UniProtKB/TrEMBL annotation:
Binding site for oxalate: 88, 93, 98
Protein keywords: Apoplast, Disulfide bond, Manganese, Metal-binding, Secreted
Source organism of this protein record: Saponaria officinalis (Common soapwort)
Highest classification ranks of the organism: Eukaryota, Viridiplantae, Streptophyta, Embryophyta, Tracheophyta
Keyword Cell membrane: no
Entry protein name: Germin-like protein
Amino acid sequence: MAEQSSEIAFFDVETTIPSKQVFINGMFCKNPNDVTPEDFLFRGLDVPRNTDNKVGSNVTLITATQLPGLNTLGVAMARVDYAPFGLNPPHTHPRATELFTVIEGTIYAGFVTSNLQNGGNKFFSKILNKGDVFVFPQGLIHFQFNIGNTPALAISALSSQNPGLNTIANAVFGSDPPISVDVLSKAFQLDSNVVKYLQSKFGISVQ
């Protein structure tokens, strides 16, 4: 789905042979003859999501995967539901800046810049209330934490139709096969037994 002149259009791919299909940013460009209004529609963003999980949050991400009409348009969005004291854990979006808006509740949000010229890592954070907007720059580790005892809700806009998501703790301590305990012990300056314990919390068994 590409933009041609000033009109929204799709790449004209006149083949159904997988090896000859056109991909943009990892997404297949649909033949314009096969496009329907449903390619531009997503329903149900108003429905609260289930936050009964270990971190107490639920992210409904709307990218070109869920809404094909976004492909090549450079935007995506997300609904984020939080249980009381729920957390959207530290993560990154490698291909997108995020514009985060609080709809309900009080959110403690922050991001970290790393490897500055002085060798430091600077932390930026704010407590956000209903109607507040906060920016998470592309590729930086960030999080949101509901500091209230009632559910919270936020809506995010992202500057890519395929922003990507890397959840830090899951990636580091829950990879399959697991990262070497020796590597993680040295990287995080932790005892090897602590590393094994953390890996076990993500379903990884290391002898």
